[in-house]
Amino acid sequence: MIQLKNVTKRYDSLTAVDEVSFSVERGECFALLGPNGAGKTTIVKMLLDFTPPTSGSLSLNGIPSSDARCRASIGYLAENHHIPLSLSGWRYLLRCAELLEINRSDAMDQCRSIVELIGMQGREHAKVGTYSKGMIQRFGLGAALMGDPKLLILDEPTSGLDPIGIREIRQLLESLKGQGMTIFLNSHLLSEVEKICDTAAIINRGKLLVKDAISALVKDGDTLEELFVRVVTG
């Protein structure tokens, strides 16, 4: 579904991504891991065509990421997304549907389905200012699911959450994975990645260090965190 071939991104003298190649298959839950500044968010920005690669190619379903048709099949949740506090979660979802030009009847149906999926029944009409961080993340994920995307790209979806919020988001992602959704995840919570992802890649200083199935990466009593530290520190 996702293919990166020899992707490089330079900003003047800084090489943020250096000849990176990997693929993510349809229905896979994939994690892109690395320390701060490794190049993870730059790769996401290139997949979404927020910034072009300096060289190499990125494609989704064989279509270049620069082609607007790609974005019709992508749901995206940014790390520090914001929802106006004066809106209700329901109204926020409706506004997202309007931006996607979904007709009113279908938008109402999708909002009802999404509210049920994210477990926010009974709170969807309350103002966002009354929500916990976990609830706001749930509605952020709900917005990313609007329009029935085939691929979810999530940048640190559990950032700033307490353990209960982290568990809630993990359970929601596990539910989406069970429905066959392809998930591309950036996260520093390696224990959560280990629980829900099928495959993972580790990058550092723009270079791909390793990419494999979680079951192949974590074995012989090892943990993903121990592997990560060992690979990144050399």
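Second entry:
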Amino acid sequence: MAAIQQEIRINDVLYYIHKDLSAPLTGAVLARVAAYSEQHFHRVFQRVTGESLHSYIRRVRLEQAANHLMFEPDTPIRDIALKAGYSSLTSFTRVFGLQFGVSPGRWRTQQHPQRLPYKNDPEIAAGAKRIAQSALPSPDLIDLPDQPVAYIRHLGYGRSIKTAWQILQAWAAAEKRSFNKQIGLHHSNPALTPLEQCRYVACLGIDEKVTRRGLINSLVIPGGLHARFKFKGQYGDLLPWITRLQDEWLSGSGLKAGATPAFADYQRNQFIDPQERFELCYYQPVSLY
């Protein structure tokens, strides 16, 4: 029971972190979110996530900064550093180089051999080949409302995600809730983050709050301006589609990637579909500034 309570509190912290990565995410602030003493909070965070708080925040901020550098060619590097929580361009350049092996300026202009770690996954690599000759669908721009969801987090992107969906499905049945609105929240860019480190959140749209918190908790997916892409295919196709929409559409759209996570709204969910096929709307948050 204590372990479940710790996971609940750290889930609240992760939600707080990903709402605004540029916010002052100090140990003291986040310990208050978790309702722990700061010293105890650091121990619990590492136990639950497998990373220290400092390492986790640095990694996800740098992944977001790498996205902005690739897809916002006109945004000054100093502004991207500030969004990533670095007031000093020198310190940002140093830690970025340690993470990606090149300076932010070189990352922006060079080809990225570090990208596409999913090429090591034969099924996703096969998916990339399947969709290579297909045209990227044109998106609609939609202003979405906030979406309350029940959720369970999952570390790693692969077939093991099915377990998270099965737990959520069992919870919905026990709570007599609809299992119709299934949403996959993507905290990580699979083109930059090894698949085993990608953080995925299986979500279920809800009308009533989750009153008994445990493995299943609740959060609100932020609304706002999103580009909606309609995709369908089989297991292995979705991550290559996501990379293509970023490379082929986002970089030339005149828009910038939003700060909130992208997500898939499933009409057919590849992780629990018997044929492992999907039909979904993928929502990429965007902004003008």
